[in-house]
C-alpha cells in the first residue's frame, strides 16, 4: 500500500489532520461504524464528553486491532459531537494524543449534531486501509 498526503497549507498541521490522503495498491479497506462511549456490557456512558471520548477512542482502537488493521492507517475520521465548542475546548488534546500515539495522517471532519443515541456526546467513525 502507498499513501500520499496532500496538504497545500500548513495551518492544519497544528490541528492534527491533513487535507487529503491518496491511497494506492490497497490490499483491504475497513469501514468502522461509529464508536462511542459504550461499555463492554452495551450500556452507554453517562460521563462527561472528555471521559466519553477516551472510551470511544479505546473502542475504536479495539475494533481496528481485532480486525487485523492498524490505527496508523486510518485515512478518514469523522467526529460527531453534541458540542464542537466543548470538544475543541475540553477534549481536543485527547484527540491530538490519539493521532500522535499512532502516527496518523488522516483527513478529519468534525460535525456538531443535535443528539447521539441515549446519553452519548461523541462518536468516531473511521476508514482504515492496509
TrEMBL record:
InterPro entries noted in UniProt: RutC-like_sf, YjgF/YER057c/UK114
One Pfam family matching this protein: Ribonuc_L-PSP
PANTHER family: BLR7761 PROTEIN (PTHR43857), YJGH FAMILY PROTEIN (PTHR43857:SF1)
UniProt name for this protein: RidA family protein
